[in-house]
Design goal:
alpha/beta; Rossmann fold; 16% strand; binds iron/sulfur cluster; binds magnesium ion
Length: 284
């Protein structure tokens, strides 16, 4: 694992002091030092501060896993749901209370393993909420078993001879499912994570962030260094309205592109629900 230079640490401390994110902070995070999830959490604090989301209108829903602790660390409403069931809980909250800002946070096992059946339907329906998938290619909370995004050959407690199944790619899945905002970030790039989470929350529709967020304790194969070696920003000329080009860039594993792949504005699920309600209220 590489370490940040002294100057970078001092600059980051200065930035943190100047930032007003403490208004959205709650309990102190309990993750292992160096866990990638700290960057995602910081990004969410910064987005809430930039967008001035009142705590009373801010809901964070999580599933199970190390990322499941998010709601405890944020001042707002929160629900730590069942494994893989964060999305249906969040969509229910959004239908009942369309004015709330709803953010779903989950891991790779939670989102494309046990909860893999919910993701496509929230995306294709274009629910107006944000889904942040913190991908560390392992089950961290249960101490290191291969997950649906672990690379082939990776050894773990449940794959002593190496993983023999091909990994899923959450970015390409979200594009195929019809998400209307798709971005990939890397927990080493704090400013990029904050900026894209802010844009995702601003987006009207289903916004998806695939954050590469290393587990520094249990994953010795997929690390800050391994992702950093393959990381690249999306080409400047990339047209974010072109879903098929976004798909081919998202499929690349060398380099692994980061940035905003795709965005489109189409009516949301909430818009359609409102239309139905308005129709029901018309005199016969
Ligand atoms: Fe993060 Fe891994 Fe520690 Fe969980 S076990 S908090 S994912 S470093
Ligand atoms: Mg995981």
């Amino acid at each position: 694992m590489s370490f940040l230079s002294k100057q970078t640490v001092l600059d980051e401390l200065k930035k943190a002091k100047a930032s007003k994110i403490k208004e959205w902070r709650d309990n102190l995070p309990t993750w292992c030092p160096g866990c990638g999830h700290f960057t995602g959490l910081h990004g969410l604090y910064e987005a809430a501060e930039r967008l001035k989301i009142p705590s009373k209108d801010f809901v964070v829903v999580s599933g199970i896993g190390c990322s499941g602790r998010f709601p405890f660390f944020i001042k707002g409403f929160g629900l730590h749901g069942l494994h893989g069931r964060a999305i249906p809980i969040a969509t229910g909250i959004k239908i009942a209370n369309p004015d709330l800002t709803v953010v779903v946070v989950g891991g790779d096992g939670d989102g494309v393993g046990i909860g893999g059946g919910h993701f496509p339907h929230a995306a294709r329906s274009n629910f107006n909420l944000t889904y942040i998938l913190l991908d560390n290619s392992i089950y961290g909370l249960t101490k290191g078993q291969i997950s649906p995004t672990s690379p082939m050959g990776m050894k773990s407690g449940t794959s002593p001879y190496g993983n023999i199944a091909r990994p899923l790619n959450p970015t390409t899945l979200s594009l195929a499912y019809g998400a209307t905002f798709v971005a990939r970030t890397f927990s080493r790039e704090r400013d990029m994570v904050s900026e894209l989470i802010t844009k995702a929350i601003q987006h009207k529709g289903f916004s998806f962030i695939h954050d590469l967020s290393p587990c520094v304790v249990f994953n010795k194969d997929v690390t800050y260094d391994s992702w950093n070696a393959a990381a690249a920003k999306l080409p400047e000329e990339h047209d974010i309205l072109d879903r098929s080009r976004a798909m081919s860039l998202a499929e690349s594993t060398d380099p692994i592109y980061q940035g905003l792949f795709f965005r489109e504005e189409v009516p949301t699920f909430d818009d359609h629900v409102q239309k139905v309600k308005d129709g029901l209220n018309q005199p016969a």
